[in-house]
Amino acid sequence: MNNNMYKGRETNMNSKLILTMGVVIGIVFGVFFAGFVFKLSAPSVLFKEVSVNYSFDKTVDLLTTRINAKDGWHVTDIIDQQAEVAKYGGGHIGKVKIIKFCNAKLSGKMLRADERMYMSVKMPLSISVYEKSDGRVTIGLANGYVMARLFKGKAEGEIMEKVVTDMESILSFIHFRYTIF
């Protein structure tokens, strides 16, 4: 009888060991797989590209006009990235302009508290307009929807939700809506 009890305990310990090893291997595999999936999807989740049916200059003009017409928003700068890169030895990259813009009331609200000052790194906001090698004019921007969701429940998230709403309004001429993917 003692021998049978010893075998029962041994089988029970082996089962626990196998279960524990399975859980550990599952967690390691899950973390690796999640990281791999995020790495593959990050560019399309964090950034958005929208091809437009306007010329390069017309697109820059439309965006500038629409930003300046939106209550509280104004363009602070338009950077000719092609000229900047060429000027400092980076060669020819094609047409690229970066439109920097701001909403002072929202920026003030965001930066008023010390714990939110780190958000200044993304200010002013920017949208890029570029012409791809196949001639397509494209607008590139950060995915504000994802950023707002990352900060949901905090003051940063509330402010970003207002920015997302305003951005969708500004970009309505191309029927743009933020999505998670």
Estimate percent helicity: 40-55%
Give the mean pLDDT: 85
Order of helices and strands: HEHEHEHEEHH
Globally, the shape reads elongated
* Sheet having the most strands: 5 strands, antiparallel
By CATH, the architecture is named: 2-Layer Sandwich
CATH class: Alpha Beta
Total individual domains: 1
Sequence stretches where pLDDT stays below 50 over 5 or more residues:
none
Count of DSSP strands: 5
Q: What strand order characterises the main sheet?
A: 1-5-4-3-2
Q: C-alpha Rg, in Å?
A: 25 Å
Helical run tally: 6
How far apart lie the N and C ends? 63 Å
CATH topology heading? TATA-Binding Protein
Structural class: alpha+beta
| CATH superfamily placement | TT1751-like domain
In terms of DSSP E residues, the strand content is 15-25%
Give a description of the structure:
With 181 residues, this protein is of the alpha+beta class. The chain has a single domain (45-174), classed as TT1751-like domain (TATA-Binding Protein). 54% of the residues lie in helices and 19% in strands. The protein contains 6 helices and 5 strands, in the order H-E-H-E-H-E-H-E-E-H-H. It has helices at 2-46, 56-69, 81-87, 104-111, 144-150, 155-170; strands at 47-52, 73-80, 96-103, 125-131, 137-142. A 5-stranded antiparallel beta sheet has the order 1-5-4-3-2. Helix 5 (144-150) runs antiparallel to helix 6 (155-170). The longest helix is centred in the N-terminal third of the chain and has 45 residues, at 2-46. It starts with a helix and ends in an 11-residue tail after the last helix. The mean pLDDT is 85.
